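Task: fold both queries, return tokens.
Query 1:
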Amino acid sequence: MKLNPSKCHFGVKAGKFLGYMVTQRGIEASPEQIKALVNIKSPANAKDANRQDSSSEQVHIKILRKM
């Protein structure tokens, strides 16, 4: 096996790998992945809050199925 020196990085504290940030603490979501969640609007009424809650629950179920 040969390694390409231009693609190898050794001794770094953090780096992006397959879309995730790998740090000394472990694997974290990259800022690009959570940008939509950070910029989400607060619900204006009960109907919006219910809609937002059910959509986040659907995402949670999809994540659990992949585990």
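Query 1 returned. Query 2:
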Amino acid sequence: MYPSFHFLRPAVVFAAIITTLQSLTWIAMALTSIIAYYCHISMEMEPQSNVKSLLGLTFYRQYFYKGDCTPNGFDNSLFSILDSVNIVKPIDIHAISWTYLALSFIWFVSGLLLLVFVNKKNLKLSSFFIYFWVFNTLIISIADLIIGIFMARDYSIISDKLAEFIFGIQSSESISVMLQARTVSWIMLGIAFRGFVIWFINVLLACYLISHVFAIQNHNRVKSGYINNAYMHNETRHSSHIIGYDPFAPKMFYGNGSTTDIPRPQINKAQTLNNQQRAAALSLHLEHNPEKEFSYLHGGRSRPTSLTFSRGYNPKQNNIPNPDYSPELPRALRLPDSIIDEHPQRVLRNSKIYKRY
């Protein structure tokens, strides 16, 4: 699984929620702007001396008044002073409204796709939907920045014009309209930048998710075998042999290099008792025959001297056992010749264990 998924999923959920709320709000504002531009809105308000009513009328006349139609209850003569100011025209706001309507709808769809498909089961496709959402978010953020710059320009122009009106000879009604026009420009500036804070949240969230896109793509390539640290694209360099392609070899125990202990083989209890009996018998024999205790110093004998073959050898006899080719025991465990001479049949039956000196 993608190791940073527990950080990615909460960011995706937050991005989907904030995208849904913003897109629906901007779709509603775009539709209201389009309806107002075509005069399908009632402007029957309270007397224009009311500040709230004057602000609404100025807002409509400044950015949404088409010119060839007049809504009911609207007095255009009071706002003719706005024609002398070089600000964004209502036709430009109308084009911007249609653009935001389309972008907000696509952004709304991308937010839903981001919420549904970015999960553990569709990790390989998650980068595509994150790309789609980030692309739409950056496009809308750039559009917000451009519109915000134009609204800031309008605010600066209207502020300069208002200063001329205050220090010039103008009626109080014209000054009131310019004051309301400056307020409207400030409101439009805040709407363009989405309250300033939300715009920065959108940009930072897009940058954070795009960083996860590159991490997911790298994770998918490594998991699928497209990128392997043991493989080098540069043919001029030599890479170490891939261990996974070697034939299977069992693991060997070589002991600890820092110690001189040699592991001893496990000996069962029966074998231990047998060895003890042999050692006791050998010790008893050496006590009665001390001259043979150091017989190995004189070299081994090729054949026993005490064994006679006067009886001859008959290959047809059935009581003669088969030749024994097993390896000889150590000298310390061999029986002396006297015991072999006294009990030849017993020695032959146990020839695989007891050997002659």
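Both queries returned. Flag for query 2: Confidence is low (pLDDT under 50) at residues 224-233, 352-357.
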